[in-house]
Amino acid sequence: MPERIAYRVARQIVNHAEAAAPNEACGLLAGNGATIVKALPLRNAAAAPAKSFGLDPEEQLAALKAIDADGLAWIGVYHSHPRSAPIPSRADIAEAADSNLLHLIVSLERAKPQLKLWRIDSQSATPLDLILHSEMFGGETEQLSKQQKIAIVAAGIASLLLLVALSVALLPPPPELAP
After folding, report:
1. Nearest residue to 72 (alpha-carbon basis) of 30, 13, 27, 28
2. Which residues contact 124 (CB under 8 A, 6 or more apart)?
């Protein structure tokens, strides 16, 4: 079964990675079941943050408390690869502490950021399917912006006008009246 991530959460993670570059960004993933619904950005506490990531223990504890307070579960970690593909490095694999946690890697190597989800243990990494979705936790849907709402209404009006114009154009000609 593929894992799911809310679009807004994926965007938040990418924004964090871009802001942290050229250093690696990192944080925790929270969710319910197979759905990632929240990202909690943390400070990269690694000695060499441009080449690796490390979670700050105090920030991690605070984030775990926030996850618990939200009624969610800690389901994974994320980090960025500013100059390489979203594939776990040897260090990522060797330092994976809990094989039950998901590992999301965001790559900034290309013009368009790439996300890849992994299940990692201290020996290997297994890629997982990840689906972007627009639903939020609890079945609510994300709110549309004012511009999106205007665009939807304008498209609806334009479609209706086009339908009326086509209908009128396809009407048979009126009969001729005899003098």
Report:
1. 30
2. 93
Active site annotation includes 140: no
From 24, 59, 109, 176, active-site residue: 24
CA distance 55 to 33: 23
What pTM was computed for the model? 0.74
Full DSSP string of 68-98 = HHTT-EEEEEEEEETTS-SS--HHHHHT---
* Backbone CA torsion sign across 151, 16, 119, 29: negative
Q: Where are the alpha helices (DSSP H) in the chain?
A: 7-20, 57-69, 90-94, 146-170
Q: What does the pLDDT look like over 98-137, one tens digit per residue?
A: 778 999 999 999 999 999 999 998 788 999 999 988 754 4
CB of 106 closer than 8 Å to CB of 114? yes
CA–CA gap between residue 163 and residue 8 (Å, rounded): 35
